[in-house]
Amino acid sequence: MTVSVIQFGGSNCDRDAVRALSHLGVDAERVWHADGLPTDTDGIVIPGGFSYGDYLRAGAMAARQPIMGEVREAAADGTPVLGVCNGAQIGCETGLTDGAFTTNRSARFQCEHVHLRIERADTPWTAAYDEGDVIEVPIAHGEGRFEIREDRLDTLEAEDRVLFRYCDADGDATQGANPNGSTANVAGILGARETVAVMMPHPERATLPDIGGTDGQGVLRAFAE
Amino acid sequence: MPLADADRELVEAELGREPTRAEAALFENLWSEHCAYRSSRPLLGAFDSESDDVVVGPGDDAAVVALDDDTYATLGIESHNHPSYVDPFDGAATGVGGIVRDTMSMGAYPIALADSLYFGDFDREHSRYLFEGVVEGISHYGNCIGVPTVAGSVAFNDGYEGNPLVNVACVGLTTPDRLVTATAETPGNKLVLVGNATGRDGLGGASFASEDLAEDAETEDRPAVQVGDPYAEKRLIECNEALVDEGLLVAARDLGAAGLGGASSELVAKGGLGAEIALDRVHQREPEMNAMEILLAESQERMVYEVRPEDTDRVAEVAERFDLGCSVIGEVTDGNYVCTFDGETVVDAPAEYLADGAPMNELPSEAPSQPDRDLPALVAGDDGSTDPDALAEVVEAVVGHPNTASKRWVYRQYDHEVGVRTGVLPGDDAAVMAVREAETESGEPLGLALSSGSEPRWTEAAPYEGARAVALENATNLAAKGATPLAAVDCLNGGNPEKPEVYGDFAAAVDGLAEMCAALSVPVVGGNVSLYNDSVAGPIPPTPTLAVIGKKAGFDAPPAAFAGEGTVLVVGAAGGSLGGSEYLAQAGGSDRFPELPENAPVVVETLAAVADREDTLAVHDVSHGGLAVALAELVTDAAGADVTLDGALALFDETPGRAVIETTDPDGVREAFDGVAPVEAIGETTTDGVLSLTVGGVDLSYDAESIRDLRAVIERELD
């Protein structure tokens, strides 16, 4: 599988995503947004960072770049698409996933390690885990608070499209374990198809064994299929 | 601040005529203290900047040190003190931008930042405003450009009330093939300006940074502060990387103090060459800028490159790809440094004279003296009797002081993991970055350790001895994580050098820092000097920030947290006095600064070796706040310690070059330190998460939660 990691102006986790995927034996390359999606793309990562400086709403500018039209088409055709951090914000802005990520409850940037509970293990992104597993993954964001209208949250929950929730070390999704005030402790969700997912935490930062934890490997293994 | 009369006379004699307005402005800025180090250069000869590993020493944008045959690290440090007082958010943000461009201009990719910050008393509203603004500015800029901020220091001291300090260091990686320097090479090559358009921002920043801050600086000097655009910087990083990839750069320099005039004249001066620049060709953001404004504006996110004539089109294409402006503004010559504007010659002066012609200042100085011993009753008595309540009160005051408290509130706002290289995270003695590209001599992957800081209470009490201690403390930070120091850069901050006692303190601090770095065989490969940190509130304490990098095998290190399974040792000799300590700051009194070990290099080397032993479970250096703080920091919910000490002196002595080690093989550690430094067993770790102290017969006990609560003072106050 060849994974295209899309580099917008200002993306800064593009190299990290390529390094993490390469470690898992996945063929990945950075693709400059203006060059368009390569025809041999079998998977897509929208990486973290600050696309266009996020001078507007986080992800708003990138969502309107022409390449995102190609990404939407690929996603509709079943190509796996993962948005991480800024990529998650772009995913919501683009309509690939529902809801929005907005300013943290603390109103400050937060870089720290959090615990996530695996809400379902029957998706490509979570097949490496068991439902209810607790993993430790870093976050690094200023606008990571998941917000969604109540009726649409109900739909999201009813359709079982919440993939990860912030929780404590024991797996309880408490308010104390919710780093940014996200609605229902939501950290990551699925799009219309199970092959599309966005998440605020950084699985690529918890993949390389030589700098610590590897709990995030399972998410990226979706591309190793 | 116009060109001083004495300087004007020199310039007139050199040029054989009156300088033009643009020339006068250029000389004023390039010959300012900030650019020309007129009061400090005579002192800088004290530093030893050479070793077998040094590839590029002082004088370029950043220093370059070999990690192995194929991998180089760059290292630079910069102050952004005055701007951060006037506008803390933008002042600090642009400080980050500047040091990152210094890294890029060596053909390197930035991999780590460290910030050492100094503010007035934490209790003051204005200090908090500056602190919050500076941290937010660094967070905003550093996070956005994707360079992790992994190390640093924060100190609060009333000496910084009118002059906060923001010292930013950056580490980059490059290779022998990719290395670019700021030495122009060949007449006929083009000078190309890439990056943001030039506007009227930051005019006269260099000369503004060379005066005391006036009472009305916050309003009057605002135009001298630049506003950063991290998105442009990120594109510039990528563009620079692409230009280096394609081998298109002959020489490079970033535009900082004194703008285009500074960068371009220094670039050609270093090559013993000249330039012809048409200022009209500079891409501009505002209409009707005059020659002087284009020449001296400190608009951010710009680089000037020397490019072969046949490559200029390709450089323009690459810049275009990253949405950056690009102008071919002139060429390298073997004549004078000449600028034209609107068909007229506005500058025509020898480049070397501009860059290096400023006369040095010989300033009178008064040597500092050390205070006498006058200890508070708590430890003064020889009978060893200690008042339990007073002891508890002072332990809590020291452990809970913002100077020694947790800095999590700060580093949580910095993205410290972007780049997937951070092996040891902030909050420990030193960060360790994974340099997978390089190997140690034994063939293991190379970890690059980084520590940065200075301790104002030390250098305030004893500038010379305190600065020696600063160097030793930074080296000990690396050793505690198993790394041996490789090279350092310094950021020397002082008050108004025209005051003899201020200059005397500053000179002593410079000498002390140089002496200890030389003793440790750590070459000081570059740095920055910032004087005139003086205001109606008085001068700052002499503040020699040192940023040190070191090498180790692998990317992990023993944590600064007890495991609960070993013996607690203190290694290293305590100096036995309390001058400059947080304890005296809280309890009152005075003392001489502690004696440092004479064999510091062997102590550091031995500690680094012991840290990497299998049976070493935890290591944490002893410094600010002494053992009281070091032990408190080592306690976790799952692991505590039972510790017995002779008295308060032992608890609060801050002598650096010491560490607390938890080990399962105390005899092995004793053997390693045999003939090197004393090793004292002070207790055992426990699994109850409680620090139980017996100090001079008095028992004190703190559980992990109460320690966490004491140490959370910054978060508690600001969130």
TrEMBL record, chain A:
<keyword id="KW-0436">Ligase</keyword>
<comment type="subunit">
    <text>Part of the FGAM synthase complex composed of 1 PurL, 1 PurQ and 2 PurS subunits.</text>
</comment>
<dbReference type="GO" id="GO:0005524">
    <property type="term" value="F:ATP binding"/>
</dbReference>
<keyword id="KW-0067">ATP-binding</keyword>
<dbReference type="GO" id="GO:0005737">
    <property type="term" value="C:cytoplasm"/>
</dbReference>
<keyword id="KW-0378">Hydrolase</keyword>
<feature type="active site">
    <location>
        <position position="204"/>
    </location>
</feature>
<keyword id="KW-0963">Cytoplasm</keyword>
<comment type="pathway">
    <text>Purine metabolism; IMP biosynthesis via de novo pathway; 5-amino-1-(5-phospho-D-ribosyl)imidazole from N(2)-formyl-N(1)-(5-phospho-D-ribosyl)glycinamide: step 1/2.</text>
</comment>
<keyword id="KW-0658">Purine biosynthesis</keyword>
<dbReference type="GO" id="GO:0006189">
    <property type="term" value="P:'de novo' IMP biosynthetic process"/>
</dbReference>
<dbReference type="Pfam" id="PF13507">
    <property type="entry name" value="GATase_5"/>
</dbReference>
<keyword id="KW-0547">Nucleotide-binding</keyword>
<dbReference type="InterPro" id="IPR010075">
    <property type="entry name" value="PRibForGlyAmidine_synth_PurQ"/>
</dbReference>
<protein>
    <recommendedName>
        <fullName>Phosphoribosylformylglycinamidine synthase subunit PurQ</fullName>
        <ecNumber>6.3.5.3</ecNumber>
        <ecNumber>3.5.1.2</ecNumber>
    </recommendedName>
</protein>
<dbReference type="InterPro" id="IPR029062">
    <property type="entry name" value="Class_I_gatase-like"/>
</dbReference>
<comment type="function">
    <text>Part of the phosphoribosylformylglycinamidine synthase complex involved in the purines biosynthetic pathway. Catalyzes the ATP-dependent conversion of formylglycinamide ribonucleotide (FGAR) and glutamine to yield formylglycinamidine ribonucleotide (FGAM) and glutamate. The FGAM synthase complex is composed of three subunits. PurQ produces an ammonia molecule by converting glutamine to glutamate. PurL transfers the ammonia molecule to FGAR to form FGAM in an ATP-dependent manner.</text>
</comment>
<dbReference type="GO" id="GO:0004359">
    <property type="term" value="F:glutaminase activity"/>
</dbReference>
<dbReference type="GO" id="GO:0004642">
    <property type="term" value="F:phosphoribosylformylglycinamidine synthase activity"/>
</dbReference>
<feature type="active site">
    <location>
        <position position="202"/>
    </location>
</feature>
<feature type="active site" description="Nucleophile">
    <location>
        <position position="85"/>
    </location>
</feature>
<keyword id="KW-0315">Glutamine amidotransferase</keyword>
From TrEMBL, chain B:
<feature type="domain" description="PurM-like N-terminal">
    <location>
        <begin position="427"/>
        <end position="550"/>
    </location>
</feature>
<dbReference type="InterPro" id="IPR010074">
    <property type="entry name" value="PRibForGlyAmidine_synth_PurL"/>
</dbReference>
<feature type="domain" description="PurM-like N-terminal">
    <location>
        <begin position="59"/>
        <end position="173"/>
    </location>
</feature>
<dbReference type="InterPro" id="IPR036676">
    <property type="entry name" value="PurM-like_C_sf"/>
</dbReference>
<keyword id="KW-0436">Ligase</keyword>
<feature type="binding site">
    <location>
        <position position="78"/>
    </location>
    <ligand>
        <name>Mg(2+) 1</name>
    </ligand>
</feature>
<keyword id="KW-0479">Metal-binding</keyword>
<feature type="binding site">
    <location>
        <position position="254"/>
    </location>
    <ligand>
        <name>Mg(2+) 2</name>
    </ligand>
</feature>
<keyword id="KW-0963">Cytoplasm</keyword>
<dbReference type="Pfam" id="PF18072">
    <property type="entry name" value="FGAR-AT_linker"/>
</dbReference>
<dbReference type="InterPro" id="IPR036921">
    <property type="entry name" value="PurM-like_N_sf"/>
</dbReference>
<feature type="binding site">
    <location>
        <position position="102"/>
    </location>
    <ligand>
        <name>Mg(2+) 2</name>
    </ligand>
</feature>
<dbReference type="GO" id="GO:0004642">
    <property type="term" value="F:phosphoribosylformylglycinamidine synthase activity"/>
</dbReference>
<feature type="binding site">
    <location>
        <position position="101"/>
    </location>
    <ligand>
        <name>substrate</name>
    </ligand>
</feature>
<comment type="function">
    <text>Part of the phosphoribosylformylglycinamidine synthase complex involved in the purines biosynthetic pathway. Catalyzes the ATP-dependent conversion of formylglycinamide ribonucleotide (FGAR) and glutamine to yield formylglycinamidine ribonucleotide (FGAM) and glutamate. The FGAM synthase complex is composed of three subunits. PurQ produces an ammonia molecule by converting glutamine to glutamate. PurL transfers the ammonia molecule to FGAR to form FGAM in an ATP-dependent manner.</text>
</comment>
<feature type="domain" description="PurM-like C-terminal">
    <location>
        <begin position="566"/>
        <end position="695"/>
    </location>
</feature>
<keyword id="KW-0547">Nucleotide-binding</keyword>
<dbReference type="GO" id="GO:0000287">
    <property type="term" value="F:magnesium ion binding"/>
</dbReference>
<feature type="active site">
    <location>
        <position position="34"/>
    </location>
</feature>
<dbReference type="InterPro" id="IPR041609">
    <property type="entry name" value="PurL_linker"/>
</dbReference>
<feature type="binding site">
    <location>
        <begin position="298"/>
        <end position="300"/>
    </location>
    <ligand>
        <name>substrate</name>
    </ligand>
</feature>
<keyword id="KW-0067">ATP-binding</keyword>
